[in-house]
Structures are given as structure tokens and as C-alpha cells.
Amino acid sequence: MIIGVFSAKGGVGKSLVASNLAAAFAAFHRLPTALLDLAPGLGQDDLLLDLVPERTWADLLPVISELTAKHLELAATVHPSGLRLFAAPPEINVVNPRTSGVNPLTPDLLKALLAALRQNFAHTVLDCPTGLEASTLAAFGEAELRLVVLTLDVPTLRSTQRLIQALPADEKATGLVINQYSRGTPIGLDEVLASLSKDLPREETKGMPRTEALSLRLSAHAEGLPVPARGAKEQTKSMPKTLDLYAVLPVDARAVWGNVSYGQPCVLAKKKGLGRALRLLAARIVRPGSR
Ligand SMILES: Nc1ncnc2c1ncn2[C@@H]1O[C@H](COP(=O)(O)OP(=O)(O)O)[C@@H](O)[C@H]1O
Ligand SMILES: [Mg+2]
Which of 89, 90, 143, 193 could form a disulfide with 4 if both were Cys (CB 3.0 to 4.6 A apart)? Predict the structure, then answer.
């Protein structure tokens, strides 16, 4: 499955979520997992995993039409968890220095790369560029599961609302991941949902689970309690399933410090807080019935 991790605004924790999810799939679920860092020149997933890539996905572009498992293995950097990182090239432009700033991974090249990754990995996690650039729009179409990471502040909510409106109107699952949550936040979940669903086309609004049930699940997530299953009435209401709350991740300075300073994925440290919430999110994706 291709899992695209998106955000409308930088700094919300997209790379942290993408790299930790990939580490959890590989380490705890023993699934062949790839992590594709899609931000040429600006990628950080190598740092978050304490890896020093010798090659990047840019090395695959000249052979993109004939990619084999061997090519993929040569371009990947292996993490102790087993996950394969396809690091972003360090140069902003690796194809033509005269068109600096252009992402060499065009939508067609991305599709070809993802086709090869799909064949060779159980899960491929995409750390997508922030906002709505061409490769992000292509990733919207390619991902079987879209995770939209956001924080509960007004600018992020407004940008996220616009990003959600740009999603293709299809039946694929889109999961909201609220990050850096702390209790007593002035913006309540009902406001989040009202703001995110406001201008959605009718079919998509129909897919929003009822806010009361989500509120209940939000507080359970935040307390680290088992999240109640959706009621029968709500389940029928949420067909087709298009937008759902997947996780609420707590603010956790200590866990993040080890991750950003030493490249130790917090999901792998057997601690409560952020690491535990990310383990639950990974389990939910691997076993969709679990909550
Ligand atoms: N749950 C969290 N608790 C505390 N700090 C966090 C959390 N998630 C992210 N951060 C902080 O936000 C910064 C940005 O995270 P990052 O994953 O690089 O965001 P993005 O990829 O969305 O730009 C991190 O360096 C970290 O300091
Ligand atoms: Mg990032």
C-alpha cells in the first residue's frame, strides 16, 4: 500500500510521522517497507533516522523505465529496523542546473517509481512536499491511504481545509492526524471538523463521521485509552468513507528531542506518549479493524 503523508503547512510534524510510521511497519510488523523522501534539496528523513545515504532516488531516474529490485536495493539506505530509505537528492535540481528549483521527479517519473516500489514493498510511505506542488498532487492520486498531518491552530486549519478541498473526489481513505496536541487547547475538535468540512462537496461531507462520536474518540486518543468503535448508526452515515480522524499525537518534547537530535525514531523506544501513539497509528493502518 502507498501511504502518502501530507501537510498544508511546514513544521507540523509530517516528516516525523512519515519516518516513524515506516520504522514501525518494518520493526514491529516485519513488513518490507520503503520510505520515500520527496523533498529534493530539503529532505530530512535521513537525519531523523540517523542515516548517511550514499545514493538517493535521483540515481534511479536514468533507469526509471526498467527498474528492477536490484536497482532499488542499490539506491536505498537500510535502517536497522529494516526499512529502506529512498533519500531525497541533496541538490535542489539534479537534472538541469539552468532550471534550478524544478523538482526532477515529474508526476510521470513519480508514478513509474511508485509502480516499482509497490511491487517490491508491502508498504511505501511518502514524505510529501508541503503544500500543493505537482509531485504532491500526483501523490494524492497514487496513494491508497492519504494521511493529512495538522496542528490545532487557525493558520494550519485554514491551509488544511484548502488542501482537503484539493483532494481528488474519490473513495480512497483520507486520515487526519492531529499532531502536537496538548489538553486544554483553545481549539476544540468540533471546530476542527466544522472548519475542515465546511466547503467540502456534499458527497465528501456525507463521509464525515458525526462530530460527537469523534469528540469521544479524540479524548480517548489523547488520554491514551482504547478508542471506542464507531456506533452502528455512525458507520452507515460514514459511507463512503472519505475523511476520518486517524490519530491524535501528543506534544512530547522529550521523545522528539532524541528523534531530531540523535536520529532515534521515537516509535522504536518502548515509551508512552508520542512513541506509543505512533505505534497505535501504525497498528491501525496495518490492521484496519483495530483502534
Ligand atoms: N508531537 C510533537 N511534540 C513535540 N514537538 C514536535 C512534535 N511533532 C513535531 N514536533 C516538532 O516540530 C518540528 C517539525 O517537525 P517535522 O516533522 O520536521 O515537520 P514537517 O515535516 O511537517 O515540516 C520538529 O523538529 C519537532 O521539534
Ligand atoms: Mg518535513
Answer: 143
